TrEMBL record:
Name of the molecule in the record: cysteine desulfurase
Phylogenetic lineage: Bacteria, Bacillati, Bacillota, Bacilli, Lactobacillales
SUPFAM superfamilies for the chain: PLP-dependent transferases (SSF53383)
Cofactor: pyridoxal 5'-phosphate
Similarity comment text for this entry: Belongs to the class-V pyridoxal-phosphate-dependent aminotransferase family. NifS/IscS subfamily.
Enzyme class: transferase
UniProt-recorded Gene Ontology molecular function terms: cysteine desulfurase activity; iron-sulfur cluster binding; metal ion binding
Source organism (scientific name): Streptococcus hyointestinalis
Length: 378
């Protein structure tokens, strides 16, 4: 049996990231000094509310947006649901046509399917052509009754960057609002939704070294239905007592990310380039488009089963993935790669996803390349 000869190496950062010491410290400090409910009117509540305003301002500054446009949520799945369902259901008298892509996260795709099945909306799913989803494809799909377009900023399985600015320009004179799932981009790229022409933007803390279970929805002042009913938190847009500990961690992770944005991006680029250089002599291909973030590498090895590769790499102490869901121990074909290459492509069974963060090292990516050479060379 293959045994681990080094500290286990984590390279599945598109799934989740490790919290940094500064984030853990910020959360611990809050837990030990301030347990008040920010909706309470006594001194404990007022102190918590002041913290909440400070945290909200940190997120707003990162987006170069007013603080009242930041809604705290339980994560990007809720943010995506809130933006899509909330706007579509509140504005269906304007039309019942929605547009998204086939390569979105399931929290978008399943939300769209729900609106189709339960409320009679019609959804157009843009399919990659020659490895690209373009603004022209969006223009062709637009109709007079289109009310919302939802497109991810960067794909979670391939790292592909979609033409967000060009798509926003295509919507400039149209009634449709623009929702962007920025889960894989926030904390890694400078995102300014007002400058880009975005109406709604979703992000999740655990993708950039914050805690799980907390995220944001940037939302302009559009008429929307609420998903949660009860209290008047988040300016009556999202009932439920705010997750103060999680928000504290997310605010710290955001502040850290913004401080080192360009430095961290360059480091991840170097790690990706080093990994590929170390694979010299190995037969491989890279999935997706030519325009992608360096943080996610969807790579295939001809005639190598990805399920076997994952198992052998795990035994050697490397955490990577296929980028798709595992059900009852079986690796399901990626809906993203299926959209790109078809359901019969060998790539679906040969490809793995390696996702890098700024916490990874040159030694780690070099060891991964060496391990792949050993496995594939057998």
């Amino acid at each position: 049996m293959t045994t681990i000869t080094h500290t286990p190496i984590y390279l599945d950062n598109a799934a989740t990231t490790a919290m940094t010491p500064s984030v853990i410290e910020a959360m611990t400090e809050l837990m030990t000094t301030d347990f008040g409910n920010p909706s309470s009117i006594h001194s404990f509540g007022r102190q918590a509310n002041q913290r909440l305003r400070t945290y909200r301002q940190t997120l707003a500054q990162a987006l170069d947006a007013p603080s009242h446009e930041v809604i705290f949520t339980s994560g990007a799945t809720e943010s995506n649901n809130h933006a899509i369902k909330g706007y579509a259901l509140a504005n269906q008298e304007k039309g019942k046509h929605l547009i998204t892509t086939e390569i979105e996260h399931h929290s978008v795709l399943h939300t769209m399917a729900y609106l189709e099945d339960r409320f009679g909306f019609e959804v157009t799913y843009l399919k990659p052509q020659n490895g690209q989803i373009t603004a022209d494809m969006l223009k062709e799909a637009l109709r007079d009754d289109t009310i919302l377009v939802s497109v991810m900023y960067s794909n979670n399985e391939t790292g592909d960057l979609l033409p967000i600015a060009e798509m926003a320009e295509a919507l400039r004179d149209h009634q449709a609002v623009f929702h962007v799932d920025a889960v894989q981009a926030f904390g890694k790229l400078a995102l300014r939704p007002h400058e880009l022409g975005i109406d709604f933007l979703s992000a999740s803390a655990h993708k950039f070294h914050g805690p799980k279970g907390v995220g944001i929805l940037f939302a302009k002042a559009h008429h929307m239905d609420s998903l949660l009913h009860g209290g008047e938190q988040e300016e009556k847009r999202r009932a439920s007592t705010e997750n103060m500990v999680g928000i504290a961690g997310m605010a710290q992770a955001t502040a850290d990310a913004m401080l080192h944005l360009e430095e961290n991006y360059r480091k991840v680029e170097q790690l990706k380039d080093t990994f590929l250089a170390e694979l010299d002599g190995v037969d491989y291909y890279i999935n997706g488009s030519d325009t992608r973030m360096p943080h996610v590498l969807n790579i295939g090895f001809p005639n190598q089963s990805n399920s076997v590769l994952l198992t052998l790499l795990d035994l050697k102490g490397f955490a990577v993935s296929t980028g798709s869901a595992c059900t009852a121990g079986t690796v399901e074909p990626s809906h993203v790669l299926t959209s790109y290459y078809g359901s019969h492509s060998k790539r679906l069974a040969e490809s793995i996803r390696i996702s890098i963060s700024d916490l990874n090292t040159l030694e780690e990516v070099t060891l991964l390349a060496q391990a792949l050479k050993e496995i594939i060379g057998r």
